[in-house]
Amino acid sequence: MCNPAATQAQLSYVGQDVRRIPSVLSKLYGNRVHALDMSYNCLTSLQELSNFPHLIELILDNNQLSDSIVLPYIRSLHTLSLNKNNIKNLDLLLTKIEHNLPNLRYLSLLGNLACPNQLSDSEKDEEDYQRYRYYVIYRLPNLQFLDSRPVCNEERKEAAQKGKYMKIIRPSHIVNDNNDDSSEENFNYSPLPTLVKTAQDHQGNFNIFTIES
Asked: How far, in Å, CA of 129 to CA of 191, rounded?
């Protein structure tokens, strides 16, 4: 097993091709970790996530997570990044977030069919994407940042008035082309604002941990 790098309350386990969060990580670090980065793996399940009860930031970009994922109740979670996964059902995901992540402020879904922009569907335009934003903000009114930009006051007003009518209905025949890297070859998946990831967030108490296989 690769040695995970951990700084103050932060654990990074990136690019290890795992399908599940290794149980050894949750056993050793779960109660201490505030930020978890599991990007560039092959995750299809978040089964061990309930063993990280103090998470504030969770980065799950470039995995294989689908509509079947189970999000445990994590009251402290503030930031969730799910870019470039296999999420298609926006309503289902938002319901899970509403019930289990009550304090979420930062959400990014770029590169999923649930997020209708040109990165996931070449036929979508800015109007489609804006309707999606209104609907997400309507469902999650406490969001401060969605995908690549902050939520502005004008969007909040529009979402409160019209958001419930902006529900996205996706044709069932659409095939997710997430395995095609050409569309995001030059796209930088760094949607979260700098205030979330500052130097202070990554300094601190934990040293580099070594896990013996």
From this structure: 15
